[in-house]
Amino acid sequence: xxxxxxxxxxxxxxxxxxxxxxxxxxxxxxxxxxxxxxxxxxxxxxxxxxxxxxxxxxxxxxxxxxxxxxxxxxxxxxxxxxxxxxxxxxxxxxxxxxxxxxxxxxxxxxxxxxxxxxxxxxxxxxxxxxxxxxxxxxxxxxxxxxxxxxxxxxxxxxxxxxxxxxxxxxxxxxxxxxxxxxxxxxxxxxxxxxxxxxxxxxxxxxxxxxxxxxxxxxxxxxxxxxxxxxxxxxxxxxxxxxxxxxxxxxxxxxxxxxxxxxxxxxxxxxxxxxxxxxxxxxxxxxxxxxxxxxxxxxxxxxxxxxxxxxxxxxxxxxxxxxxxxxxxxxxxxxxxx
Length: 337
What we know:
Layout: H1 16-40, E1 52-63, E2 79-88, E3 103-110, E4 116-123, H2 133-148, H3 154-163, H4 171-182, E5 193-194, E6 198-201, E7 204-212, H5 225-235, E8 238-246, E9 268-275, E10 280-281, H6 286-289, E11 304-305, H7 307-332
Antiparallel strand pairs: 1-2, 1-9, 1-10, 2-3, 3-4, 5-7, 6-7, 6-11, 7-8, 8-9
């Protein structure tokens, strides 16, 4: 294989129109979070995406002993402590037994002193349907406003949705949509999880894949997901292999084209995530809901790459600042979530 391409900040740069739309979007995010408790009918402010928490757990990342020598400097210990959050991608929390199968597996990696090394919000669908930053910002803003004003802006949402149709008609997107549909009733822990966008690994750029080991897809089919996860971790350890792909050629591994899979870049196993049984934390505790999985809080050498990824930086910050302001007031009154 050739040498991987090196990171360049030009991959992240927004134009002036995109920056203006981002400011509008940030205002809609703050407004959404401020009203999120009434939107979801809960007693705390929720996230602006992946609002529903199924479980939070402690875990360990064990580094593979056979990783290439040139990758080893990024993994200077044999294991790292993790905080993991399982979630659903919907903006509104619904108390239903069955949710749409849009799941999150967010990982926070700690150093030996308990400080933050990296955040990786992984999801169970490897692609993103929008490549245009402007289209994404306009759509996301319209969706936020629709929730805030209870059904308004539906025509605006429909107009922006039409614009993304060409992006979801790629072979990669159709294949993965069919695969997700076939697994729609499967247990959350039986899915593979992906970084979707690219991340830095020092000077290089990678994508991440987490692949569970021997998890029965039929677990918990007659239970809600929270209860199924609780029962699973009461009796069973969870293990998953972690792989990365390197960017060698922008034609085969595009950074700002998220609706296609990377090709001609083999997966390299770098380690294993393990969650021991009885490692779940109390999701009702306000301190756990306040945990941030913003990937831009990671060390610089592990941060996201790309324009769509760059939008997440500002979105996470606004959402987190607003949530913390509201939830710390609740926490000060002794309120659990």
